[in-house]
Structures are given as C-alpha cells and as structure tokens.
Design a protein that fits this description.
137 residues, alpha+beta, HIT family, subunit A, binds adenosine monophosphate, binds zinc ion
C-alpha cells in the first residue's frame, strides 16, 4: 500500500469504485472517465508502480483477468473491437502511479487513437535497435 495512492484506496474500499470483479491478486472496476461505456481498469491489489515492478505470478493473474473481462465487455456493449492499453511513466501517458491495464471497447469512428504515426525503418535500423534490446535480455 502506498499511503496516498488512489488505486490502493479503491482496493481497500476507502474510495468508492464500480467494482466488476476481483480475484486473489487483481481488482477490476469501471474507469470514471471512460473513452467509451464499459472502459475497465484491471489493477493488482498490491501496489506496484509500473509493469516492470509486478512479480510474474501477479502479472499472470492480471493478464488472465484482462482476457476474461475483455471478452465480457466486448459482448456486453456489442463492441466492434477492444484495445488493451498499459501506460508506464508520464511520457507514455501514465497519470496514476499504480500499474493498471485499460480495457477499452472500440467502435468505428469513435475518435480514439485516430493516428498511429509509424515511421518507416530500414533493415539496418531494425537490426541496430534489435541488438540494443537483446543486449538487455
Ligand atoms: P493512466 O493515464 O493510464 O494512468 O490512466 C488512469 C485512469 O484512471 C484514467 O483513465 C482515469 O480516468 C482513471 N481514474 C482516475 N481516478 C479514478 C477513479 N477514482 N475511479 C475510476 N477511474 C479513475
Ligand atoms: Zn497503489
């Protein structure tokens, strides 16, 4: 528990939330500012800041909960698609420093993620960055 963490307070029931389900290690509730109706958050009950900090057994519970809820919300709101989003650090859009997965039901022309500004890379660029990544594995 991080004493001033809003998501820790939600898990403890100190702040209200619209709980959808929980497991031994995960807690799921509706996002209070949804991209679309049914936008869910799945969080570890224990406080971890980013995905890097979450132990593998907790992450396994979280991702299996994310899978189950993605299918449930897809059916429940007759979504046309689902995004699973997990932001780490401010540059990636993380505002709450308690790791979480977003499950976002999607509809054609709903205005979310309208651009994906990929930049073409050549084989040499791809290999150079692949070498950097594998050196950290
Ligand atoms: P992120 O930018 O990935 O850190 O996302 C944080 C998310 O938490 C946002 O989508 C907020 O709308 C959501 N949020 C913040 N406070 C609450 C709350 N009390 N109950 C439900 N969702 C919340
Ligand atoms: Zn927390």
């Amino acid at each position: 528990m991080s004493s001033d963490c809003i998501f820790c307070k939600i898990v403890k029931g100190e702040i209200p939330s619209t709980k959808v389900m929980e497991t031994e290690k995960s807690y799921c509730f509706l996002d209070i500012n949804p991209i679309n109706p049914g936008h869910l958050l799945v969080i570890p009950k224990e406080h971890f800041t980013t995905i890097f900090d979450i132990p593998d057994d907790v992450l396994a519970d979280l991702i299996s909960t994310v899978k189950k809820l993605s299918e449930a919300v897809y059916k429940a709101v007759s979504a046309e698609g689902i995004n699973v989003v997990q932001n780490n650090y401010r540059a990636a859009g993380q505002l709450i420093d308690h790791a979480h997965f977003h499950i976002i039901p999607r509809f054609s022309n709903d205005g979310f993620l309208t651009s994906w500004p990929g930049k073409p890379a050549n084989a040499s660029d791809l290999n150079a960055v692949k070498d950097k990544i594998t050196s950290h594995l």
